[in-house]
């Protein structure tokens, strides 16, 4: 635990030191849960967004992308259910005056039970070695069975109470489980209350004529209201998808954990419109496809798991999260939701316009069902950044800090380093930059000894360093060093672009 916290602190300070993430308006002491992306952060974020967009839109003939406004007609949010049901159940601790999400307190308690079960399994694995039969152990060991049963009971009761809006029972559950304020240990709780997460704002010149608006809390509704526009103008046939990336806003009361939970964040969402009755087949398809996308980045299969929802949102008939092992444990990274025809039907009802598809094969009109994939770009950034940051022990006993970002996502693909600042080497380095910069984001670095420059580029996440030395002047060759293996190879300058394309191009990653 302490090790995890330590790593998380390093992630935050490294993100600042290397120009990835700054606190918002820091010179005024910042604004809580709001962050700015620096020169490297903006590049990494853009590269993640591009990787998603290309994988979802460019690679699928039946998916197109749009860019809808943040402001939408206020009735949108009545229809979508956000005005009435986009709430968090909050609870205050009377002693510490701290506010928490009641469901998160209970989920954290349940996760501790899960961790206890995993500990038992790990202990047994160690004790029995090769003879260990995990399947038999988890189905017969009384302790594991007890932890798992209790975890299930707790989560099911919470889901039932929230579904029934029985907030008194949510509080009773917290008290029965003896859940204490994580910061102070106090168990002196207020009642649980619902709190709407949408930010309100006004449109109009004077107070009397102004209209109340909301900042969109999800990008999805911009897709639903454009369903017919896109279907008709793009002559789309079901099944088809509409993708979008963009800002969303939520008045998160308990905004913690750096860029994991922010008040202003970016989503990458895709709504896939299908025939009614086909939705669960497509739901499974998208669960699998999205997990594959994550695995393509090579951060390690063990860092992902599915979590099927016990409590379904008001619009869903199936839902799962892809959880990632963040520095504070496994948490939601992406949601895959089977949203039924809830949204389109609601918009039909509130707008009085038909939002239907004429299916020539069935010779009938229907409101399509929707399977949605929804991922937070900032959360994906945190997943990639935190898993890539390593303190590595080297063979000579020294350590190096290295940010092993997947090369396709790295802000700077290669740093070009003249060995010395004289003898014509900087000019050759500059010439290499001028050739490569049309295809790759490359940087020039001439300050300090070359070893220090390598370390600096390792820590900044640059996958390749290209060093120009005196031999270069004779043989037109340079040394290319790989950030992760630290291997160095002598190659011709004329081969550099091909080498980088092979390591970085989209087609080598998204297979
Ligand atoms: N359209 C469905 C939807 O918005 P969600 O589960 O509320 O579903 C989808 O959000 C994703 O957006 C989450 O999996 C998460 O990655 C990201 N997300 C949600 N709230 C966030 C916040 N406050 N800060 C950063 N990312 C957030």
UniProtKB/TrEMBL annotation:
Annotated signal peptide: none
Residues involved in substrate binding: 101, 218, 265-269, 372-376
Alphabetical GO biological process terms: diadenosine tetraphosphate biosynthetic process; glycyl-tRNA aminoacylation
Subcellular location: Cytoplasm
SUPFAM superfamilies (UniProt xref): Class II aaRS ABD-related (SSF52954), Class II aaRS and biotin synthetases (SSF55681)
Ranges where the Aminoacyl-transfer RNA synthetases class-II family profile domain occurs: 198-418
EC number: 6.1.1.14
GO terms assigned for molecular function: ATP binding; bis(5'-nucleosyl)-tetraphosphatase (asymmetrical) activity; glycine-tRNA ligase activity
Residues that coordinate or bind ATP: 250-252, 260-265, 332-333, 376-379
Chief site of localization: cytoplasm
Keyword list, A-Z: Aminoacyl-tRNA synthetase, ATP-binding, Cytoplasm, Ligase, Nucleotide-binding, Protein biosynthesis
Keyword Manganese: no
PROSITE patterns assigned: AA_TRNA_LIGASE_II
GO cellular component: cytoplasm; extracellular exosome; microvesicle
Reactions catalysed: tRNA(Gly) + glycine + ATP = glycyl-tRNA(Gly) + AMP + diphosphate
Keyword Nucleotide-binding: yes
EC class name: ligase
Matching Pfam families: HGTP_anticodon (PF03129), tRNA-synt_2b (PF00587)
Similarity section: Belongs to the class-II aminoacyl-tRNA synthetase family.
Subunit structure: Homodimer.
Role, per record: Catalyzes the attachment of glycine to tRNA(Gly).
Name assigned to this protein: Glycine--tRNA ligase
Native species: Leeuwenhoekiella blandensis (strain CECT 7118 / CCUG 51940 / KCTC 22103 / MED217)
Gene responsible for this protein: glyQS
